[in-house]
Amino acid sequence: DADVTQTPRNRITKTGKRIMLECSQTKGHDRMYWYRQDPGLGLQLIYYSFDVKDINKGEISDGYSVSRQAQAKFSLSLESAIPNQTALYFCATSTSGTYTDTQYFGPGTRLTVL
Amino acid sequence: QQQVKQSPQSLIVQKGGISIINCAYENTAFDYFPWYQQFPGKGPALLIAIRPDVSEKKEGRFTISFNKSAKQFSLHIMDSQPGDSATYFCAASRLIYNQGGKLIFGQGTELSVKP
Hints:
Chain A is mainly β. In chain A, 0% of the residues lie in helices and 56% in strands. In chain B, strands 2, 4, 5, 9, 10 and 11 form a six-stranded mixed β-sheet that branches. Chain B has a five-stranded antiparallel β-sheet with strand order 1-3-8-7-6, with no helix packed on it.
């Protein structure tokens, strides 16, 4: 079984719709992240959470919101989707208390906004 | 602003050759420099990482070379194989104990190893 799962894997939606992407992990990690991947731009951090009560904006948080429902669940919402939010979205996890920063990524959600 | 710049954007190497991908960073407070490998349809996965207290780290065919004064680091893949064909991302973060986690990624390099 995958340690970090994302649902849905693919989603096509229309401009103005509200979309929620979900992430679950069984690794027992306290830290969770949402990234966006665009060709030629690499991975950009949208939001990150170091524990259930800690939510922080990343590099490109405008137009996005998140909810950390439990240690194992972190969801990303697009309140009113627009075409330039078409991208590949990744959830990742890591654990605090180490001197490395290995992040474990889910398989990604491909989102298309028409 | 792009704090980590990666080049080239794409790279084609013959089987058995050496693949070299370069990254440059701006923030001198960065103290952790990982490389991630991503296969099509998969999420990125950590390949190898280095701290700035060493100039080189080797794991099998993969080597990171680090130049602190030049604020540059590179990934060398020796004896490149078709199975190494993937997208590679460099990254950097400020790894203060219990406060790290904000990886800044480069733009990615699409490597193709021809048989």
